[in-house]
Design goal:
The structure is a single chain. By secondary structure, the chain is an alpha+beta fold. It contains 13 helices and 12 strands. The strands form 3 sheets. A 7-stranded mixed sheet has the order 2-3-4-11-5-7-8, sandwiched between helices. It is globular. The mean pLDDT is 95.
Length: 338
């Protein structure tokens, strides 16, 4: 049985801040990153919680990311907000642009945020849930590194290319999903490697293009999209919307930009927000009820909504006031400050 380390909720934030400061991130970036990691760890998402501190440190040590860069916002009368991260992590740019995105969405009914020239390593659901908490529906997309082979291919051309969506629900947790278009998230493969466990069949190929369940061989080879050609097409769509559409890099270009293995991907992010008050033609309550009838029918069949387990983990951890991570992971994180 894996030994676990209990961390109070404040200790999660303190540990993240300490590692980030020690690595060289300024207070603004360290705070934005720590809040994201805290949100993921609170929801028991081990692959995007404190574990991601390793990538943050590696990216800083590579000399690529600017831990002090202040984002530049480009605001016009149009419904598009641009945030130039100026070679910093994406999260601070999102924090700075979020109030403007919300204001523009309420004014126009629909608005978009394009974050450019950023390093990205994090989950997307905390971002779209910030928008659904404001009563807006939202989706977010990013490319990554070219770790994923297209359907029928033998080498990485696509990123893990996650897609997230959140729908506000009055008095309830939002309807949210956040999934990679690869069959497995990159962080999950790294966790399988740390645990010495084989991967499920059908999620990766080795460097020769042969199917593999060996995490090390998968990391040296390529991952596969979910759903064959359907997942592959969706992944290509995300490459286009979060790359050329917003004047930023594809996953192939991000991989070529990286100076060292382990660095976070460098590219852009697109976030779209929708105001139900505008789209529902003044009948928000009636249309919210339609959505709730759909959710109720799904649950009545014994199915579950995406993120139900994550919300349950959040409530449990908030109630007991701590989270649990493997002792080995905790020791490795502490060693980052040595």
């Amino acid at each position: 049985m894996t030994s676990v380390q209990k961390l109070s909720l404040q200790e999660v934030k303190d540990l993240a801040l300490s590692v980030l400061r020690h690595a060289g991130f300024g207070e603004a970036h360290a705070g934005a990153i720590a809040e994201m990691l805290y949100a993921c760890q609170l929801d028991d998402c081990q692959s995007h919680g404190l574990f991601r501190l390793f990538m943050c440190v590696q990216t800083m040590q590579s000399g690529d990311v600017d831990g002090q860069a202040q984002p530049d916002l480009h605001i016009s009368e149009k419904a598009v907000v641009r945030a130039d991260a100026r070679g910093g992590m994406s999260l601070l740019a999102f924090e700075k642009a979020l109030p403007v995105l919300i204001e523009k969405t309420r004014h126009h009914g629909i608005a978009a945020l394009a974050i450019n020239k950023c390093y990205h390593f994090s989950a997307l659901w905390p971002e779209v849930e910030r928008l659904s908490a404001a009563g807006l529906a939202a989706m977010a997309m990013v490319p990554s590194h070219a770790w994923v082979a297209p359907a029928g291919g033998t080498r990485g051309s696509l990123g893990t290319n996650p897609l997230a969506f959140s729908w506000p629900r009055a008095g309830k947790d939002p309807f949210t999903f956040d999934f990679a278009t690869s069959g497995f998230a990159r962080g999950e493969i790294e966790l399988y490697k740390r645990a010495g466990k084989p991967l499920p069949p059908g999620v990766a190929i080795d460097k020769s293009g042969n199917p593999t369940t060996d995490p090390e061989a998968a990391l040296e080879g390529a991952m596969l999209t979910f759903g064959g050609y359907k997942g592959s097409a969706l992944s290509i769509m995300i490459e286009l919307l979060a790359g050329p559409l917003i004047d930023d890099l594809t996953s192939l270009e991000s991989m070529a930009h990286a100076s060292k293995a382990g660095s976070a991907p460098y590219h852009g992010e697109i976030i779209l927000a929708f105001d139900p008050a505008v789209f529902s033609a003044g009948r928000v309550a009636e249309n919210d009820a339609r959505a709730e009838r759909l959710f109720a029918d799904i649950l009545d069949q014994g199915a579950r909504l995406p993120s139900q387990r994550r919300f349950a983990a959040r409530a449990r951890n908030q109630q007991r006031g701590y989270v649990e991570i493997p002792v080995a992971l905790y020791n490795d994180l502490c060693a980052l400050m040595a």
